[in-house]
Specification:
mainly beta, twelve-stranded mixed sheet, nine-stranded parallel sheet, 28 strands
């Protein structure tokens, strides 16, 4: 690898290696933090969930046995929502956790809000009560929340339409009870979300949010439980959040578009921001409830095609596959100040796995702990990726791999 650099300093990536868990030589590392000092009191070989607890962000969150249904039914025949080019922007307030086809009633759902901003649902199709939840004007569209205090979990019956209006902000921090100063973690402060999005009990929904437009921001939400049978091949990957150009299949059994190299990169969304979300876990720090037929999501954030995305200040935990994975293109990818713990439970084991075109990528200031493979796996990405100043601990739980696994030229590990 002609351009591979590995520098070791206090300000560079901080690795925690051990020949044996909690070996004395490891405990004398000069990079121990106050959180790590508790490890001194632990003796013997730690079980998997104990090692994850050493990440200090897990608290009482252990790793229970999870089961979920794998029967697939073709529920979703809807087409990708195409933006109708609305002349005015709308500020929409979701006041119902219900889901289902749009209908004029007393409550405005998230599905209806997305269709409104896409221009595929007209304001006149809403009831008077729903229209009062919509304000036209502004410089960009926004979806906020005013859900009842005892009904803040949106249970999807099917995949939501793709977010297709450029500049839209989907903002969970607008929900009453959200406290931007309250964090459940110490190393990286990430506020606790109030609004959660998951599949309806005993219902398979393979994707939480789909983004196909530029300058979209998703903030302050919890998404979990999005998966589908692994035996379906050549299909779109299940994920909490999926980013690509249009058209994007909204059915699990439909393959991704065969874009090839002839598709212009300029068609990919740019300026996308994913921030302050909890992906893979509930707002109470629990895994998806298996008694409801829910299991871990397939992937956290799947970036199939993007010309610019920032993934910052999120908790991404307990996915069957990688927390963050790229496909055709993920140029100008920034992964900053995230807590990425316990991913790769039964699929792609690496916390962050980059493939395809990743020009000008940056992975920095993240806590990468207790994942089943490498913390970062660079699988011959075209372009250049810089991995700098990350806290890397206890990875390789299921597959023994290097903390940072690099294939290809032009990458920088600082």
């Amino acid at each position: 690898m002609k351009s591979f650099r590995l520098l070791s300093s206090y300000k560079s990536n901080r690795f925690m290696y051990q020949k044996h868990p909690l070996a004395s030589s490891y405990l004398t590392s000069p990079y121990l933090t106050s959180t790590q000092s508790m490890l001194r009191r632990i003796a013997g070989v730690m079980r998997r969930h104990q090692r994850l607890a050493a990440c200090s962000v897990l608290g009482a969150m252990l790793l229970p046995t999870v089961s979920w249904t794998t029967n697939w039914t073709a529920r979703w025949g809807q087409a990708v929502a195409q933006s109708a080019g609305a002349e005015t922007f709308v500020q929409v307030t979701v006041n119902s956790a219900a889901d289902g086809p749009a209908r004029p009633d007393e409550q405005l759902t998230l599905r209806e809000a997305i269709e409104l901003t896409n221009g595929t649902l007209s304001l006149s199709a809403l009831s008077d009560a729903e229209q009062r939840q919509v304000v036209t004007g502004g410089v960009a569209s926004k979806i906020g929340f005013d859900l009842p205090e005892n009904a803040v979990t949106i249970e999807l019956e099917s995949v939501l339409p793709a977010i297709a209006q450029p500049g839209l902000t989907l903002d969970g921090t607008t929900q009453s009870g959200y406290d931007p100063n309250q964090s459940a973690t110490a190393e990286i402060a990430i506020p606790i979300p109030v609004v959660a999005i998951r599949p309806k009990a005993d219902t398979e929904v393979f994707r939480g949010l789909t983004i196909s437009a530029s300058d979209v921001t998703v903030r302050g939400l919890a998404l979990y439980g999005f998966n589908a049978p692994s035996q379906i091949t050549q299909s779109t990957p299940p994920a909490d959040i999926f980013i690509s150009h249009q058209p994007i299949p909204l059915r699990r059994d439909r393959p991704l578009p065969d874009v090839g190299r002839e598709t212009a990169k300029g068609s990919a969304p740019s300026g996308v921001v994913i921030e302050q979300n909890w992906l893979g876990i509930t707002p109470t720090e629990a895994m998806p409830d298996s008694s409801l037929g829910l299991g871990p999501s397939g992937f956290g954030i799947s970036v199939f095609d993007s010309a610019g995305i920032t993934i910052e200040n999120n908790r991404i935990e307990y996915h069957n596959g990688s927390a963050i994975i790229t496909g055709r293109q993920a140029d100008n990818l920034e992964v900053l100040s995230n807590i990425i713990v316990g991913n790769g439970l039964s699929g792609m084991p690496d916390a962050i796995r980059l493939d395809g075109s990743v020009e000008n990528g940056l992975i920095s200031r993240n806590l990468l702990c207790g994942n089943d493979g490498s913390s970062v796996f660079l699988f011959k990405p075209e372009g250049s990726v810089t991995v700098f100043d990350n806290d890397i601990r206890f990875n390789g739980q299921r597959l023994r791999r290097a903390a940072i696994y690099v294939m290809g030229d032009g990458q920088r590990i600082l």
